[in-house]
Amino acid sequence: MNNAELPNHKARDLRHWLAHLEATGRLAVIREGVPLKHTLAAIAKRLDGRQAAFFPRPDGHDIPVVSGFVARRAWIAEAMGVEQAGLLGAFRRAVDHPLPWREVDAADAPCQQVVHEFGGAMAGDLHALLPIPTHSEHDNGPYITAGLVIARNPVTGVQNVSINRIQVHGPDRMAILMLPRHLLAFYKAAEEQGQALDVAVVIGADPLTLLASQAITPIDFDELEIAGALHGAPLPVVKCRTSEIRVPAGAEIVVEGKLLPNVREPEGPFGEFPKYYSARENREVIAVDAVTHRRQPIFHTIVPAEMEHLLLGSIPREATMLAHLQRSFPNVLDVHLSVGGVGRYHLFVKFRKQREGEPRNVILGAFGAHYDIKQVTIVDEDVDVHDPQQVEWAVATRFQADRDLIVIAGAQGSALDPSTTVGQMQDGEAAPPHLQGISAKMGLDATKPVAYHGHVFTKVSIPGEREIDLDREIVRGATIDWNDAAVRA
């Protein structure tokens, strides 16, 4: 099914979207009792990009698990109610025109229909309460992989929303990876004052709120307001039971807790988006205060390094990169973070070149836009950047390494890129944070010359090929009598 068949089908909440996928043959109901350790993730991975997977009673647990419901680019556009070609523009408009959220009472918030208190005499066990899968072979136990982590700036009170990997390693304790972004800045500010930082981990958000959480924004920009803009109405939120954090009222599950100051506990290894394991290191720790959820909630898990994981990260980055580049280079027409580049590292840029040398400027601008970008390939407007085969063709026929290659050594890159760790281990230990993620950057100018002789760089095409209607030209149900090569209708 394509967007044209359902042009305005916006995902109101998770259950509405799952019902739509089921009605259109894109949700598979799996047998009851699938093991949470490895088997659940293995089944979801086999269905990745074809069908979402719904697991009733995994390991006998009362709460079902769902995975893979935004595992295709076309599905995300459909959930937004736009054509696939308009996906980046629609996301960028939401970022530029956010809608403040609308607070509702706890009685009107499905995510607080059931409350489990933790702490003190009210002991709780996350492993017993929630069906948390163990995904990859060498993962160090169960992980929450689709939790929206919401925290407030301890200075300004403005919220931030992100998705972080969270290892559940105790009944009420979780270790979290925080990269050098806004959540870590909030935590450092609180820790410097000897204070814990309140956090909420939201599990089972709708597709648009998940997507909004990955927007690249300045600090003190609440991504829940972008979610409202994507929905076309202010997002209903509710105040947490144990803190001032506001969470999506329609979510399935919320884990409330505190990031403890000056506490670190081992986390990892864990299979990350580059399709390698990150090392076991001491990480910051969340102590759980409460869990709230809907009646009969649904637990969402993202299989690491598969399409749901890669697309949720790449599409918001593409929208940001496109807007960033077009401010300086209006002839940038489109961008794409390739799946082969794990949706983070390899950027393809479509560009209308008018002067020699322009692609080099665009390459440098792209490197400055986000430190994750490791390789930039610039192609002409006759190349579809969403088709890796066309991009490879442009490199094969329009690029010469001695003339069109840019290499920048010693730049900041992604600390999760394992190639950046080569030579960094010291006595078996990881390098200190200030030395992690040092990367070389590579730019490829795969554009044709502005001026060339004859048709030497003209892309081969056949007149009328795009206008051909194959349904009119092909005779359905016809057979051929090979004795006389006659067609029998």
UniProtKB/TrEMBL annotation:
This is UbiD family decarboxylase. Residues 312-446 form the 3-octaprenyl-4-hydroxybenzoate carboxy-lyase-like C-terminal domain. It holds the Pfam family UbiD_C. Coiled coil: none annotated. One of its GO terms (biological process) is ubiquinone biosynthetic process. Residues 103-305 form the 3-octaprenyl-4-hydroxybenzoate carboxy-lyase-like Rift-related domain. GO terms for molecular function: 4-hydroxy-3-polyprenylbenzoate decarboxylase activity. Residues 18-88 form the 3-octaprenyl-4-hydroxybenzoate carboxy-lyase-like N-terminal domain. SUPFAM superfamilies: FMN-binding split barrel (SSF50475), UbiD C-terminal domain-like (SSF143968). InterPro entries: UbiD, UbiD-like_C, UbiD-like_N, UbiD_Rift_dom. It comes from Massilia timonae CCUG 45783. It comes from the Bacteria. GO terms for cellular component: cytosol.
